[in-house]
Amino acid sequence: MTRILRQAPVLFASNLPDTIVYWRDRLGFAQHGVFGEPPVFAIVEYGNAFAMLKQAPAGHAIAPYWQVSEGLWNAYFWVDDVAALFADMQRRGAAIDYGPCDQPYGVREFAVLDPDRQSIGFGQALTGS
Known about the structure:
This protein is α/β, with parallel strands linked by helices. It has three helices and eight strands; from the N terminus they run βαβββαβαβββ. A four-stranded mixed beta sheet has the order 1-4-3-2, with helices on one face. It has a four-stranded mixed beta sheet with strand order 5-8-7-6.
């Protein structure tokens, strides 16, 4: 059986250069690749997790998923130490959507907002879940 080795959410950005800097400086993701001049596409990474960022067309309105369905993220990452990651992102000045909390689906999670107010969730499975 074929295995999926990695996955990457794809998010639009109204200002890709600013969004790349935000993911790097505020969220701690490294630049994996930036394409075009000016940039039109980028890949950022944190460990084995990736996100792909695409410059939205001029005038395109980016609708964060939480505006369509309350509480929904545009991207979600499973992590092994949600408390440490939250502390690091908070220290870096990330825009916090909501702080760490235990969810009924067995995950302790938090979320940040990107420059286009898209919610990016990070969760850790609770013991016994």
